[in-house]
Amino acid sequence: MKPDNLAYLISVAREKMSRFIVSELQRHKIGKLVPSHGDILMALYQHGSLPMKDLVRMIRKDKSTVTPLVEKLINLGYVDKNQDEQDLRIKKIALTFKGRSLRPIFDEISEKLYQRIYKNISVEEGKTLRLLLEKIIAHW
Amino acid sequence: MKPDNLAYLISVAREKMSRFIVSELQRHKIGKLVPSHGDILMALYQHGSLPMKDLVRMIRKDKSTVTPLVEKLINLGYVDKNQDEQDLRIKKIALTFKGRSLRPIFDEISEKLYQRIYKNISVEEGKTLRLLLEKIIAHW
DNA sequence: CTACAAAGGTTTGATGTCAAACAAAAAGGA
DNA sequence: TCCTTTTTGTTTGACATCAAACCTTTGTAG
After folding, report:
1. Tell me, what CATH number does B102's domain have?
2. B88-CA/D29-C1' distance, Å
């Protein structure tokens, strides 16, 4: 649905970025991951151990989506899941050693994505773009 | 995966728009459709009958994705599919009367989306935004 | 004309995604 | 204490999505 040109362009940009990330992840043979898995790992890199609840909020996906996403990362050995001791409802997700060892790769992919975006716009234009997108989002 | 702020903002903007469209479609009881179905109908509103091949290109989805999307629209009675007479490989998708009758609703949703986006940015800013997104996409 | 390659679509299998229903634990109120 | 509500997370069912394999029809080289 792309009646307005802006909506169309935003969708296309997002698709390009998404495909770029997926292809980079595959190139590194990390397992067949999608950007959402990357979101989870990035969140863990930045915040350490996190309960499912916070992960759900941070990656902006339904909780019933996050469960299998995390499960996959567990099966690949990148994270583990442990019950909180105070509140037994809470499951805390944390990086394993193997998961932490992937960080350089994710940093590299992030950097590459950044370079790709800024290949054809200036830093100043990037600022403008960020500002406009924030305006649209903030008062949505 | 939202290391760079811009990538993150573009994703969030796209998600907001997508959810907006889905909720509008549901509000109109058109059937449980997603934006991709809207993309197909909009393409047909603009170009009349279209072969699957062109539909695939226009909505930027894999051909194996478009097949079931169209099938759903057929089941809902909004489009039909007929074999081309010259080239028997080609299946042409066309709007039915019922499908055409939905056009006002889609025009309304488009307009609402436009209003939502431009609620907090000026026309001039919209122009700038479009320009910058095009820059990023074009030389991707 | 025949064989091979290319093009247009569908099928199959795997998986991400959401909504709704569910289960279990904690919180709160009487 | 006991009952109700809220919170946290999983399960289930439906479906969009893609990649790879497949089928059918065209196009083409020899």
Report:
1. 1.10.10.10
2. 23
Give the nearest partner residue to A129 out of B113, B117, B129, using CB atoms.
Answer: B129
Closest residue by Cα to the C1' atom of nucleotide C23? A89
For residues A4 and A41, membership in a common domain is answered with no
Closest CA to A39 of B75, B11, B36, B40: B11
Domain encompassing residue B77? 5-138
Inform me whether the pLDDT recorded for A3 exceeds 70: no
- Between B11, B114, B132, which is nearest A129 by CB? B132
Residues A139 and A107 in one domain: yes
Question: A7 vs B39: CB contact, 8 Å cut-off?
Answer: no
| Pair A48, A94 in one domain | yes
C-alpha span between A139 and B137 (Å, rounded): 25
Question: Do residue A22 and residue A53 come from a single domain?
Answer: no
Question: CA of A61: how far to CAs of A57, A89, A126, B37, in Å?
Answer: 7, 20, 26, 22
In angstroms, the CA of B64 and the C1' of D20 are apart by 11
A71 and A47 in a common domain: yes
pLDDT the model gives residue B2: 47
B137/A35 CB distance under 8 A:
no
Q: What total number of domains does chain A contain?
A: 2
Question: ipTM score of the complex?
Answer: 0.92
A78-107 per-position pLDDT tens digit: 999 999 999 999 999 999 999 999 999 999
pTM, full prediction? 0.93
**Cα(B21)–Cα(A36) distance, integer angstroms:** 22
Q: pLDDT, tens digit, for every residue of B42-100? A: 999 999 999 999 999 999 999 999 999 999 999 999 999 999 999 999 999 999 999 99
